[in-house]
């Protein structure tokens, strides 16, 4: 399977149907979902649907979140990369959102920062995006740190699903 983005310790590839156990482990964890609307999944069928939904975006938009694999173990550790946002969000739509989500045992290793830096580089150089946006719950301090370490600027606070979120921007100024 093609390595779409590669870093020292990780690579990104398309999400596959064989990632169901990984997605279930990720998305059924209430701690992972603490700042994602607090609605973790409960069934394997839901994990299958997550993958189906994302794979449909590859077809429809040519872009979607990608699986992140730890090179050392070949384990699925989470996902990252871009999603085309078509719903009105903080007054914008039809833009590329950068996101990431890691299985708890992979937190605290610098994986979010390492993978996000590489995703930004891919977004600017391969996808030729003029700007990348990201959002984070104002309580999600760890995610705010990741975005700032990767060069994003906090622009404003807005309500997303009735929860205050920061709106982040990173301009392609190369
Ligand atoms: C947000 C989230 C991705 C952050 O993951 P993380 O692993 O804590 O993030 P980082 O990559 O910044 O790594 C964290 C720590 O690893 C440490 N670290 C350990 N080994 C490291 C290494 N080899 N290289 C770099 N950092 C390393 C860093 O010091 C860093 O700590 P610091 O930020 O306090 O300085 C993770 O908590 C998560 O998946 N949460 C649930 C989903 C979510 O909220 N997603 C974001 C929605 S906006």
Topology:
Layout: E1 5-6, E2 10-13, H1 20-27, H2 44-61, E3 66-70, E4 76-85, E5 95-102, H3 111-125, E6 131-137, H4 141-149, E7 153-160, E8 163-171
Antiparallel strand pairs: 1-2, 2-3, 3-4, 4-5, 6-8, 7-8
Helix pairs in contact: 1-2
The structure holds coenzyme A.
Describe the fold and architecture.
By secondary structure, the protein is an alpha+beta fold. It has a single domain (5-171), classed as 3-Layer(aba) Sandwich (Aminopeptidase). The protein is built from 4 helices and 8 strands. A 5-stranded antiparallel β-sheet has the order 1-2-3-4-5, with helices on both faces. A hairpin with a 3-residue loop joins strand 1 (5-6) and strand 2. Helix 1 (20-27) crosses helix 2 (44-61). The longest helix is centred in the first third of the chain and has 18 residues, at 44-61. The model has no long low-confidence stretch (mean pLDDT 97). The chain binds coenzyme A. Residues 32, 35-36, 100-102, 107-113, 136, 140, 142-143, 145-146 line the site of coenzyme A (COA).
